[in-house]
Design brief:
about 350 residues, alpha/beta, eight-stranded mixed beta sheet, four-stranded parallel beta sheet, about 20% strand, binds aspartic acid
């Protein structure tokens, strides 16, 4: 006969087995996440003449349906749908395309049955589109940008595994509320921090000094940190009613540079100029008067740096208070341009714009 404690143990075991079976059944019944793939072109959709053609191929030739078909494993991790938003190489991405894309992403994420979005994109301007969306997407649901450095026809093409990892991440709970992400080469990076660092290698996307947010390994994303800067639902930017963005240009500086580019931007009616200065955003004597003149005409001047790392210190290499300039913090010039465009949709007050550069 069983003693009372033995009976209790047996009963506890029975309960545990029942709970485990119920949990397992529930897990098995949980539907796969619904992830939409918005295709825009790029090398991930590119084709070359031979399997060893890794340069000199044609970007943006494979349509979204074939992209999805080429990775049948996607069906096991998500209920994927595809939409061809553009079919372009990303050097041709522009403000108009960004507005179209952002509005589409916001509309799709507002649908309760959509869990996340993957955007396939050329790598050349991928970081710019990612940061633009990071500032204007109004949802906490995951948005993941993905590209490839080798065309789909190449030996060891990186597109299929990158797409698989991007869909995994976009369908995951872990990615919710992390802002727009870039997933390539098994790494997860924040849109704000990541940049293309190499012209041809598959490990090109890096958040150099700030580091990756995590990895996609063993069929799931692993996050270790997140950006401290505000993004998506926590920004003040709203593109829903915008038909265009203010004209903001970048003037690149180098030894012996003159005022020609800045003067031309002023004459062409730019509303903002990002100065990609040397070092800590230094202003050469040959350029400074042109920028002062631009500011006198009401153009907002942002001091950034071509270095690619580090902060441009306010009132460091130039007296920004006196010149009424804004500093880019640690945004690279191409991302500073995006934030300045969005800032100019709200205000032309340089104090407010400076606050935005320290917020986003
Ligand atoms: N030029 C291509 C593009 O950005 C390069 C790539 O996708 O890797 O569309």
């Amino acid at each position: 006969m069983l003693s009372i404690p033995a009976f209790r143990n047996l009963y506890a075991l029975f309960l545990l087995a029942f709970a485990l079976t119920a949990a397992h059944a529930q897990q098995a019944a949980a539907p796969l996440p619904r992830v939409l793939i918005l295709a825009t072109g790029g090398t991930i959709a590119g084709t070359g003449a031979t399997s060893t053609t890794t340069v000199g191929y044609t970007a943006a030739t494979v349509g979204v349906d074939n992209l999805i078909k080429s990775v049948p494993e996607l069906q096991k991790i998500a209920r994927v749908g595809g939409e061809q938003v553009f079919q372009i190489a990303s050097e041709n991405m522009g403000n108009a395309e960004w507005l179209t894309l952002a509005k589409r992403v916001n509309a799709l994420l507002a649908q309760p049955d959509v869990d996340g979005i993957v955007i396939t994109h050329g790598t050349d301007t991928l970081e710019e589109t990612a940061y633009f969306l990071d500032l204007v997407v109004k949802s906490r649901k995951p948005v993941v940008l993905v590209g490839a450095m080798r065309p789909s026809t190449a030996l060891s093409a990186d597109g299929p595994i990158n797409l698989y990892n991007a869909v995994l991440t976009a369908g995951s709970q872990e990615a919710v509320g992390k802002g727009v992400l870039v997933v390539m080469n098994d790494q997860i990076n924040a849109a704000r921090d990541v940049t293309k660092t190499n012209t041809t290698t598959p490990d090109t996307f890096k958040a150099t000094e700030l580091g990756v947010l995590g990895y996609v390994v063993g069929n799931r994303p692993h996050f270790y940190r997140q950006s401290t800067r505000k993004h998506t639902v926590d920004t003040e930017f709203d593109v829903s009613q915008l038909q265009s963005l203010p004209d903001v240009q970048i003037a690149y500086t180098y030894a012996n540079v003159g005022p020609t580019a800045v003067d031309a931007f002023v004459a062409a009616g730019a509303r903002g100029i990002v100065h990609a200065g040397v070092g800590d955003g230094s202003l050469p004597n040959r350029v400074k008067p042109a920028l002062v003149n631009a500011r006198a005409k009401g153009i907002v001047v942002v001091r950034a740096s071509r270095v690619g790392q580090g902060i441009v210190a306010r009132n460091g290499e130039a007296n920004d208070d006196q010149l009424d300039f804004v500093v880019a913090d640690n945004l690279n010039p191409q991302k500073a341009r995006i934030l300045l465009m969005l800032a100019l949709t709200k205000t032309s007050d340089t104090r407010v714009i400076q606050r935005m550069f320290y917020t986003y």
